[in-house]
Amino acid sequence: MDIQLIEKYFELTDLQKKQMQQAVDLYIEWNLQINVISRKDIDHIVERHFLHSLAIAKFIRFKKHTKILDIGTGGGFPGIPLAIIFPEVNFFLSDSIAKKIKVVNEISAAIGLKNVKAETIRAEKIKEKFDFVISRAVTAFPKFMTFCNGKFKAKDINALSNGIIYLKGGNFINEIKSYKKAEVYDISSFFDEKFFETKNIIYLPY
Predict the structure, then answer these.
(1) What is the pLDDT of residue 138?
(2) In sequence order, what are the residues at sequence separation of 6 or more whose Cβ sits closer than 8 angstroms to the Cβ of residue 160?
(3) Bridge partners for 134 per DSSP
(4) What is the pLDDT of residues 40-59, one digit of tens each?
(5) What pLDDT digit, counting tens, does each position of 160-177 carry?
(6) Residues 6 or more apart from 18 whose CB is under 8 A from it?
């Protein structure tokens, strides 16, 4: 399965092209052993997992040395595609399921990512501070907020203030109505594919 769809929206270096393609191939391979991606989605991995994750790279260009926590990364989304796009940004990918983190570590090592740390750990146990916390709809937004408590650095180094960048689909208006600073962006403004018509980014500055 090739990465033409990613190249439609992103100018990749030769190394990034190679890493993206290797990662796609490795996920397909690993998924035969460990169900990292649902069976119905594996045929659409480039669009529904890689490109979906990379909506964050359309929303913000992270500055060098930015620290990002990916909570509930599963097999490595959105963290791994973003780590390929932003090689000078540090990513900490966390999940409570060990076999998924094993896949993350194996794929990161195989494609030569030096900017990814992955650990089997519950979000509440993470004591480090980050510029941004990212995730792909692991739970309802209010519950996710509790995972993010105490996780943010005080000083901003990016164009956007430090905070949460959350990929979410469907109707979630009730989930965010009490967060007055929350901003919602349609992913369909970045990508043409029908899949993204109901997909959004929620950004909540810290």
Answers:
(1) 84
(2) 60, 203, 205
(3) 70, 165
(4) 889 999 999 999 999 999 99
(5) 999 999 999 988 999 999
(6) 111
Name the DSSP class of 161. P
Give the domain CATH number at 154.
Answer: 3.40.50.150
DSSP 33-97: TS--S-HHHHTTHIIIIIIHHHHHHHH--PPTT-EEEEET-TTTTTHHHHHHH-TTSEEEEEES-
The pLDDT, as a whole number, for residue 137 is: 83
For the stretch 175-180, contacts whose Cβ atoms lie closer than 8 Å and that sit 24 or more positions apart, written own/partner, are 175/140, 175/141, 175/142, 176/141, 176/202, 176/204, 178/142, 179/141, 179/145, 179/204
Give me the residue label for tokens 């993350």. Answer: 104
Q: Which of 116, 167, 105 is nearest to 141 (CA)?
A: 167
Whether the Cβ atoms of residue 138 and residue 166 lie closer than 8 Å to each other: no
pTM of the model: 0.97
Residue stretches of the chain with pLDDT short of 70 = none
Residue 159 to residue 156: CA distance in whole angstroms: 8
What's 170-204 look like in SS3?
Answer: CCCHHHHCCCCCCEEEEHHHCCCCHHHHHEEEEEE
* Full residue range of the structural domain in which residue 46 is found: 4-205
Looking from the CA of 14 toward its CB, the CA atoms found within 13 Å total 0
Q: How many domains does the chain have?
A: 1
Cβ atoms of 58 and 190 closer than 8 Å: yes
